[in-house]
Amino acid sequence: MKTLSNSELTIKISPNGAELCSIYCHGHEYLWQADPAYWKRHSPVLFPIVGSVWNGRYCYEGHVYPLSQHGFARDMDFQLLSESPTEVHYRLEDSAETREKYPFPFLLDIGYRIHGRSIEVLWEVSNPGDAPLHFQIGAHPAFYFPGYDAASPERGYFSFGQVQCLEYILISEKGCADVEHRYPLELDGNGCLPLDVHTFDRDALILENGQVQEVVLHDLERRPYLRLRFDAPVVGLWSPPSKNAPFVCIEPWYGRCDRAHYEGEYKDKDWMQHLAPHETFNGGYTIDIY
């Protein structure tokens, strides 16, 4: 476990999955501490897919490959590339093990940088091969609800910058998306989404097409608590259905689960990212603590 610290905050990162495991600021912990009674992770990086592929497998150039939800990177040990008191970088490289599930050469670099009360999460995917690389990458950080009270149904609010007319889709079958039905996000008069114990009864709310570039979590008094900023085209909002969980996830994605019943080519999946030989993709997001 590596620790980055400045006068404002301290974060911890595990080499397993290059996963952010702690954000300590203002005298308390902001990042979910992985109680398996609710959800056993903190902030996994999703690669080379986001969500599920239909029936747990996909087709690429006539071959069928098994791939579990959110891919394999979150469960693999990364190599430490560099570190300083305020920045750390890790790498995962393809191997015989990964090629059984994902037949592409790749380099996945994940970095964390802190400044003030902000954490930059840095992703770089490189294609060292001589054929196109097709992939998705996404975040799944879980944050404690501010002032969580299990006996109360209210949890706080989300806001989305100046954007108000938003729509979302839902997961339907086998962890895959129903893209035929879109629903308006019901915001209040202040442009906020009230969060309560039933907000995620139908699982994740998925906002596509770059509708928002930030999500702010507010406490019950509408005071801003933390913010995620990103340029990813998709964001998922989630807390475990029917568990009255103490946390909520804000998930910027360069990708998305399969649409239900999708059996086409892997490279043609919705929101797939493509890299030509020897090209590099850069992405990520920023967490701001108020």
How would you describe the overall organization of this protein?
With 290 residues, the chain is an all-beta fold. It has one domain: Beta-galactosidase, Chain A, domain 5 (Distorted Sandwich), CATH 2.70.98.10. The protein is 1% helix and 46% strand. It contains 1 helix and 25 strands. It has a 9-stranded antiparallel beta sheet, with no helix packed on it. Strands 5, 13, 14, 16, 17, 19, 22 and 23 form an 8-stranded antiparallel beta sheet that branches. The chain has a 4-stranded antiparallel beta sheet with strand order 1-2-3-4, with no helix packed on it. Strand 3 (19-25) and strand 4 (28-29) form a beta hairpin. The longest helix has 4 residues, at 96-99. 36% of the residues are buried. The mean pLDDT is 97.
Summarize the structure.
1% of the residues lie in helices and 46% in strands.
The helix fraction, in percent, is under 10%
Question: So, CATH architecture?
Answer: Distorted Sandwich
- Low-confidence parts, pLDDT < 50 over ≥5 residues? none
Rounded mean pLDDT is 97
List the total number of helices: 1
User: What is the third-level CATH name, the topology?
Assistant: Beta-galactosidase, Chain A, domain 5
Structural class: mainly beta
Through-space gap between termini: 25 Å
Strand content: over 45%
Outline, from the CA principal axes? globular
Number of domains: 1
Main β sheet profile: 9 strands, antiparallel
CATH top-level class: Mainly Beta
- Pattern of helices and strands: EEEEEEEEEHEEEEEEEEEEEEEEEE
Radius of gyration: 19 Å
User: What's the arrangement of strands in the largest beta sheet?
Assistant: 8-9-10-11-25-21-20-15-18
Number of strands: 25
